[in-house]
Amino acid sequence: MELLPRNPTDGIYPATDDYIHAHEVRGAERLLFISGTMGLDQQGEPGATLEEQLDLIWSNIRRILAAADMTVDNIVRTTAYLRDPAYADTNAKARVEALNGRVIPTTSIVVQTLVSEWLVEIEAVAAA
Q1: pLDDT of amino acid 101
Q2: Rounded CA gap, 107 and 85, in Å?
Q3: What is the DSSP letter of 40?
Q4: In the chain, which ranges are E strands?
Q5: Which residues make Cβ contacts (< 8 Å) with residue 109, sequence separation at least 6?
Q6: How many Å apart are CA 31 and CA 25, to the nearest integer?
Q7: How many whole angstroms separate alpha carbon 122 and alpha carbon 124?
Q8: What are residue 25's DSSP bridge partners?
């Protein structure tokens, strides 16, 4: 599989350091669509802080990827649903860290989550 960044700079606003506008995926044989994943532990309890929930989310995503014989290197796109716009920078930092510095197309949306203790939910698409 080949990932080709498509990050034009002419005639469009610039992407920031934590994402790119697009990835072209070539030669992928499998796609994995990961549902919105919350920062819940094995008992279904949310982490107490935003940082704890982000750690749990990325741990949960890694487990889901492993079930498909994939890793975070296979993630080609994410969408984050944040309860508060103030969470954007912390979420971006956690994403880039979880992806080992790799930047991908991503969107963050401010929403009301189904349970008030859920501070962030992240869905992802992976390809292999």
Answers
A1: 97
A2: 13
A3: B
A4: 2-6, 22-26, 31-38, 75-82, 106-110, 120-127
A5: 79, 80, 81, 82
A6: 10
A7: 7
A8: 3
pLDDT, tens digit (0-9, with 9 covering 90-100), for 98-122: 999 999 999 999 999 999 999 999 9
- What does the pLDDT read at residue 25? 95
**64 within 8 A of 44, measured Cβ to Cβ:** no
Contact 6, 19 (CB under 8 A): no
- For residue 126, the tally of other CB atoms under 10 A from its CB is 23
Whether the CA torsion 60, 63, 65, 67 is positive or negative: it is negative
By the 8 A CB rule, do 121 and 50 touch? no
Give strand pairing partners of 107.
79
Helix (H, G, I), strand (E, B) or coil at 108: strand
Q: Confidence band (pLDDT; 50, 70, 90) for 70?
A: very high
Cβ count near 96 (within 10 Å): 17
